[in-house]
User: Fold this.
Amino acid sequence: MKKFLTGIVFLIVTQQLVAQSFSKDIQNFRRQDSIAMPAKDPILFIGSSSFTLWKSVKEDFPGYPILNRAFGGSTLSDLIYYVKDIVYPYQPRQIVIYCGENDFAANDSLYPSQVAKRFELLFVIIRKKFPKVPVVYVSMKPSPARVKLMAKFNVANVMIRSFLKDKKNTAFVDVYHAMLNADGSVNESIFLADKLHMNKKGYAIWQPLIQNKLKK
Assistant:
């Protein structure tokens, strides 16, 4: 019983810390919605900074009603916590997810299977609310700043791809291998100075791979 109560307290404290960390982002989304609620039936992008910083995402996907509700620094656990804020209100026609990198960056002792399980939980939650809405997962990317975590990214990507393989209305987008040089090293020319986030060349690699999975 003592261990159980300790676990509950830990969970509550963790959730409170998450809420405090990203409350400004969520409040900003609510503020935007209060000014002009987005049209229903969007293609909803959720996840971490690689989506947040894609400022030209609407222009890069002409003819597709993209709504970006990603927030930088987020983990899959954060998306689970805020799913009612960033997914439920929008009645999406399709959900595109980029997240997972920060889970490992925040705790490099995590196993790939643990992060894959976090994605599976998020998927189940989304499916329960929107059973027929297609879900697209964009693989965790390699980057010069996180070379030490690349092996874990790759294994977790494989696990998530395997999980989605027999799920209806799903797709997996492999950007990981598209961002590597022929010798398997990371293509550094597609990153900003921080060696973590992408420049326009990086997004130019992502765009056709993702568009191939989007619903008109």
